[in-house]
Design brief:
The protein is an all-alpha fold. The protein contains 18 helices and 2 strands. The longest helix is centred in the C-terminal third of the chain and has 35 residues. Bound molecules: phenylalanine (PHE). Phenylalanine binds next to helix 1, helix 2, helix 10 and helix 14. Its main location: membrane.
């Protein structure tokens, strides 16, 4: 055990790992999805459950994923198998990695459709198409985009190609460069937007909506969505962080690193919410508008502020980059597996996988037009894939990873990687053995058997 490096290479330093993992974590989940699901689930109480899930379930599981990857220095399937063997368990644990790779493929197929919307909005902002739109006009423009499969296909294809190119280029050249400059820039622009939101007159209402905890509002379904989102937003439960961990240097502290990533991800989501909801309320729009929320509210905001065209363009460019660095990380575990297990060339593996996810994406973009009557359990393909991956597959992956790290891997091996003080290690261990799996199981149980 304890291989020195992965055959894929390694991050230049602890900071590069933080950047890359943050690049994976911060994405459409934070800026697009978090605000709209908060809106759909009534605000405050949902936000509180989400924060609790990040802290109590997400962070400890992220530590587990990083150490599993770093100890084995292999793709998630082989990492889980090797670590199981080292602790005298069965290699069958690798199956969690298989499920994770499937999740990655399914998530990518709708993720890149939304990535495509973002690319479309960059151009719409740049050309001034959206200047001074009213909220109704912005809603119509978004509706018109969704109704047009060829436009959607074009953008989805471009987004898929951009992603495949970087994955094919490998971890150092591709992923690092994109993250280093763009992440800080995205943050600065979010603050600018937040500043604007404060001037809209809707800020108090927006704040109240997000931080006023009314537990009467909370349903098991909302709790499940909050839990599922904590996995989605931190890129957990599917092997991404394991794969990235396998490129991490040995001397870096896993605990501190993971806390930094979790904090950055959470702050971006909260600031995005605080930038969007005031605009919604100030313009009398509906916070529960669903997936179009950001695409309808922000053009209105940019249309009204000085230099809105410039800021609007920049903003969508940065959201595009955030989506891009996340999309890359959805494919990385599977590409690493194909390269290591079947000795494929990275470029062949990337293109092959890319074609599969691109084709699946067509079914997702068709959900809004030519395939709108195809439904699974009452949801269109796009919503269905979003729902089962984030709310079922990732939490299930999370339970299994926690049980694996807590019960299968011997404490001495875990502690050898994590290097925590003995109290913190005990807390982490209890969370892996009991708290995290039980919490996830309860939420899943009540989803299947709702209370009256
Ligand atoms: N965390 C990413 C986001 O919030 C999405 C993602 C999920 C990426 C799972 C990789 C793995 O947008």
């Amino acid at each position: 055990m304890k291989n020195k490096t992965s055959i894929q290479g390694s991050w230049a330093s602890r900071w590069i790992f933080i950047l890359a993992a943050t690049g994976s974590a911060v994405g459409l989940g934070n800026i697009w999805k978090f605000p709209y699901i908060t809106g759909e689930n009534g605000g405050g109480a949902f936000v509180l459950v989400y924060l609790a899930c990040i802290l109590l379930v997400g962070i400890p599981i992220m530590m587990a994923e990083v150490f599993i990857g770093r100890r084995a220095r292999k793709n998630p399937i082989n990492a889980l198998s090797d670590l199981a063997e080292e602790s005298e368990g069965t290699r069958k644990w690798g199956i969690i990695g298989v499920m994770g790779m499937l999740s990655g493929v399914l998530i990518f197929s709708f993720y890149s459709v939304v990535g495509g919307w973002v690319l479309h909005y960059i151009i719409a902002m740049l050309t001034g198409d959206m200047a001074n739109v009213t909220s109704d006009q912005a809603g119509d423009a978004f509706g018109a985009l969704l109704a047009n499969p060829m436009t959607l296909l074009g953008w989805h294809t471009l987004f898929s190609i951009m992603t495949i190119v970087v994955v094919a280029a490998g971890i150092n050249k591709g992923i690092e460069t994109a993250t280093r400059i763009m992440m800080p820039a995205l943050f600065v622009l979010l603050i600018v937007l937040l500043g604007y939101a404060m001037t809209t007159g809707g800020f108090a209402q927006g704040w109240d909506f997000m931080f006023h905890f009314d537990f009467g509002q909370l349903t098991w379904n909302a709790a499940l969505i909050a839990l599922g989102h904590s996995f989605f937003t931190l890129s957990l439960g599917m092997g991404t962080i394991m794969a990235y961990g396998s490129y991490m240097t040995k001397n870096a502290s896993i605990g501190k690193t993971v806390l930094t990533i979790g904090a950055l991800d959470t702050v971006v989501a909260l600031v995005a919410g605080l930038a969007i909801f005031p605009v919604i309320f100030a313009n009398g729009m509906d916070p529960a508008a669903g997936p179009g929320l950001m695409f309808i509210s922000l053009p209105v905001a940019f249309g009204q502020m000085p230099f809105g065209q410039l800021f609007g363009t920049l903003f969508f460019v940065l959201v595009g980059v955030a989506a891009w660095t996340s999309a890359i990380s959805l494919l990385e575990p599977t590409v690493a597996f194909l390269v290591e297990r079947f000795k494929m060339k990275r470029i062949t593996a990337s293109i092959g996988l890319g074609l599969v996810v691109w084709a699946l994406g067509i079914a997702c973009l068709g959900s809004f037009n030519f395939m709108s009557d195809v439904t699974f359990f009452g949801k269109n393909t796009f919503d269905f894939l979003d729902y089962i991956t984030a709310n079922i597959m990732l939490p299930l992956g999370g339970i299994l990873i926690a049980l694996f790290a807590g019960w299968v891997v011997k404490d001495k091996f875990a502690q050898d990687e994590l290097n925590l003080s003995s109290t913190v290690f005990k807390l982490w261990n209890v969370s892996m053995k009991f708290t995290a799996p039980v919490a996830i199981a309860i939420v899943l149980y009540f989803l299947i058997n709702p209370l009256q």
